[in-house]
Amino acid sequence: MNVTIYTHPDCLNHRPGPQPDFAPARLLAVETALRRLPYPHLQWRTAQPATPANLLAIHTQKHIDAILQPIAPGTTRHYPPDTDATAGTASAIRAAAGLALQAVADVVSGKHQSAFCLCSPGGHHAEVEMASGFCFVNHVALAAVYAQQMGMKRVAVVDIDVHHGNGTQAMFWNYPERLFISLHESASPTGHTHETGCAENILNIPLPPRTGGGKYIEILKHTVLEKLHAFAPDMLFVSAGLDAHQSDPLGNLFLATDDYKTIGSILASAAMTLCNGRLVSILEGGYNLSTLGNAAAAYITGIIEAQS
Ligand SMILES: [Zn+2]
Predict the structure, then answer these.
(1) Above 90 in pLDDT, residue 20?
(2) 113-144: string of b/e by CB count within 10 Å (b at 16+)?
(3) Which of 39, 73, 261, 292 has fewest C-beta within 10 Å?
(4) Could you read off the pLDDT of 256-303 as tens digits, one per residue?
(5) Mean pLDDT, to the nearest integer, of 182-191?
(6) Could you give the CA distance from residue 255 to residue 124 in angstroms, rounded to a whole number?
(7) Is 178 helix (H, G, I), strand (E, B) or coil?
């Protein structure tokens, strides 16, 4: 399957402490690894930043005003309990959301088959009116809702970040035509199996610490694919957090780099079978700078080499 990578230099402007270089370094680690991939047909493109009006599809005006208001250089705005913004964050928020919207427009129109958006900050913890977990705008939910506005009736998100995508779950809960499936470490405060949405449209799969690739991929091949087939989405999205990697400092799952290739391949095959190949993946977490890029490259390789 062909993949187009979406990136915007303003995403490098998000530089929260305590290590101001860490967020841009994450993004650069992924981009560097993807640019080394030996696929000449891998395309790169950018997008216009999202407007505040674009964000109203999933967030309140109050929240949008709060996260986009200017911050003086050298100062930090704190969103309890764990999310910080600095002077460049607003431009990064708009750029990252713009990538997600453009990717949807291009995939739905058929211009590109599959997309991977290098978004920073991340998105899946952001709720309708709350920044949370280093996230301000929920890119994957924004993308999925935009796809529905473009005529994709049924949309599904598979969240492979080690943390539960509480924001996406909340935004999907009351909408039977939005399916949210999350595999995450069981330590997450939300994401229990009894949280199933208004129409069994939420599937949470909490995994015990130290769960490795064998078990993870077995669940993906059976439980997740069965749910996807039963739901029959018109378009598939992936919250592509890479922090379930065994080396990640913020998680305790034990995926190896090569497991991400298998995951990409399984999800891309599902998109080809169920959604005419319409697949948009969005970068979420991943915090080990020395393994993050290779995990992203493995995931993209899996998509490119996937068979329907
Ligand atoms: Zn995470």
Answers:
(1) no
(2) bbbbbbbbbbbbbbbeebbbbbbbbbbbbbbb
(3) 73
(4) 999 999 999 999 999 999 999 999 999 999 999 999 999 999 999 999
(5) 94
(6) 20
(7) strand
Residues with CB under 5 A from ligand 1 (ion): 161, 163, 241, 243, 285
For 180, the domain range is 3-304
Give the pLDDT mean for 9-19.
92
- Above 80 in pLDDT, residue 139? yes
Distance (Å, rounded) from C-alpha 184 to C-alpha 162? 5
125 catalytic? Reply is yes
Gap from CA of 249 to ligand 1 centroid (Å)? 10
Q: Please tell me the distance from the alpha carbon of residue 119 to that of residue 96, in angstroms, as a whole number.
A: 5
Q: Which positions ≥6 away from 205 have C-beta within 8 Å? A: 181, 182, 183, 184, 193, 219, 223, 224
Rounded distance between C-alpha atoms, residue 84 and residue 77, angstroms = 6
Residues in the chain: 308
Residue pair 253/244 in contact (Cβ under 8 Å)? The answer is: yes
CA of 123 to the centre of ligand 1 (A): 10
Give CA–CA dist 283/123, Å, rounded: 9
Q: How far is the CA of 109 from the centre of ligand 1 (A)?
A: 31
Token pair of 240, please?
Answer: 């592509």
CATH number, domain of 134, equals: 3.40.800.20
**Arithmetic mean of pLDDT, 16-31:** 91
Total number of domains constituting the chain: 1
User: How far apart (Å, rounded) are the C-alpha atoms in residues 250 and 184?
Assistant: 12
